[in-house]
Amino acid sequence: MINSAESEPESLIETPEERRERFLLEFEKPFKCEKCNERFKKKKYLREHKAEIHSY
Ligand SMILES: [Zn+2]
């Protein structure tokens, strides 16, 4: 018996390429701005970003 109604929405399926990309992104840019979710390679960049974009 085949339960076709149980197929997952495609948007939830992550391809190996996407997983790898996400992993590399998090590995390369571990410093995330919690206000706009932008990522930075170095803590210094994040600090500069915050001072520039979220200074007020
Ligand atoms: Zn930001």
In N-to-C order, the SSE pattern is HEEH
Strand order of the largest sheet: 1-2
Low-confidence region ranges: none
* Gyration radius from CA atoms, angstroms: 18 Å
- Average of pLDDT: 87
The rough form would be described as: elongated
Major beta-sheet overview = 2 strands, antiparallel
Range of helix content:
40-55%
Enumerate how many helices there are, as a single number: 2
Question: Which strand-content bin applies to the residues?
Answer: 5-15%
Q: What's the end-to-end separation, in Å? A: 61 Å
What quaternary form is this?
A: single chain
Q: Count of DSSP E strands? A: 2
Which features characterize this protein?
single chain, 56 residues, binds zinc ion, elongated, mainly alpha, two-stranded antiparallel ribbon, 43% helix
Give a verbal description of the structure.
The chain has a two-stranded antiparallel sheet with strand order 1-2. With 56 residues, it is mostly helical. The termini are far apart. It is built from two helices and two strands, in the order αββα. The protein has a domain at 15-53. The radius of gyration is 18 Å and the shape is elongated. The model has no long low-confidence stretch (mean pLDDT 87). Strand 1 (31-32) and strand 2 form a beta hairpin. Residues 33, 35-36, 38, 49, 53-54 line the site of zinc ion.
Blueprint (SSEs and pairs):
Blueprint: H1 16-28, E1 31-32, E2 39-40, H2 43-53
Antiparallel strand pairs: 1-2
The structure holds zinc ion (ZN).
